[in-house]
């Protein structure tokens, strides 16, 4: 049950991640920057909290995966970025690399820090 | 220029993440300042790079540089294992980033 709520937190944090990335690119007036800053802080904080319950490598992988999918989709759906297969494939390869790296490193990394 | 800023943003992110780890061990002003400088600089540079680059591409490459750079630093400076699986992942990230750059 506790783990379930941690997964919901990660999904929420990933949505906020997409919000602040959109903000970084498109915000122009003060209230838009305010929302961007708030989304940034809350998403980072939520990830840190969720990492206390679940393995860090897994949390980070899911978070980055959802964040990347969200920003690429938003780009194509709302901001007129043309759809190109090759670009999508390259982003997927990159994502696979990041996730692979985190899953392989994930558990040993916490030992190294301490 | 936009790609240079993106790479610099990734490097600042690595600094921020390294300091975040250090902060959990010992809290002092110097580490906190470097942490804020790292993440602040990273986000500033990322937003500059996104003026011309598509959002999704910039975000993916930014994350990729942070992750692969962190792993490379770990191997070079902290004696982390140079596992083949990790090196393949790093090559995938860098290859994809270069491909995205070539796409324009």
UniProtKB/TrEMBL annotation, chain B:
Topological category with respect to the lipid bilayer: Multi-pass membrane protein
Gene3D superfamilies: 1.10.3730.20
SUPFAM superfamilies (alphabetical): Multidrug resistance efflux transporter EmrE
Any single GO CC term annotated in Swiss-Prot or TrEMBL for this entry: plasma membrane
Cellular compartment(s): Cell membrane
Domain of life of the source: Bacteria
GO molecular function: transmembrane transporter activity
InterPro entries for this protein: EmrE-like, Small_drug/metabolite_transptr, Small_multidrug_res
Annotated TM spans: 29-46, 58-78, 84-103
UniProt KW keywords: Cell membrane, Membrane, Transmembrane, Transmembrane helix, Transport
Family: Belongs to the drug/metabolite transporter (DMT) superfamily. Small multidrug resistance (SMR) (TC 2.A.7.1) family.
Identification of the protein by name: Transporter
Species this protein is from: Paenibacillus graminis
């Amino acid at each position: 049950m506790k783990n379930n709520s941690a997964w919901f937190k990660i999904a929420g944090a990933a949505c906020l991640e997409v919000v602040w990335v959109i903000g970084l690119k498109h915000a122009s007036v003060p209230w838009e920057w305010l929302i961007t800053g708030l989304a940034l802080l809350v998403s980072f904080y939520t990830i840190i909290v969720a990492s206390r319950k679940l393995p860090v490598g897994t949390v980070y992988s899911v978070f980055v995966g959802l964040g990347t999918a969200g920003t690429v989709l938003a780009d194509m759906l709302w901001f007129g970025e043309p759809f190109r297969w090759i670009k999508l494939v390259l982003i997927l390869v990159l994502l696979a690399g990041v996730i692979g790296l985190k899953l392989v490193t994930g558990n040993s990394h916490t030992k190294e820090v301490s | 220029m936009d790609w240079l800023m993106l790479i610099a943003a990734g490097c600042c992110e690595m600094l921020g993440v390294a300091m975040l780890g250090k902060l959990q061990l010992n809290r002092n002003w110097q580490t906190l300042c470097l942490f804020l400088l790292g993440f602040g600089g990273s986000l500033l540079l990322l937003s500059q790079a996104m003026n011309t680059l598509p959002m999704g591409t910039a975000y993916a490459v930014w994350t990729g540089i942070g992750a692969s750079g962190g792993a490379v630093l770990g191997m070079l400076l902290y004696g982390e294992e140079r596992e083949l699986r990790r090196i393949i992942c790093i090559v995938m990230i860098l290859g994809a980033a270069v491909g995205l750059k070539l796409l324009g």
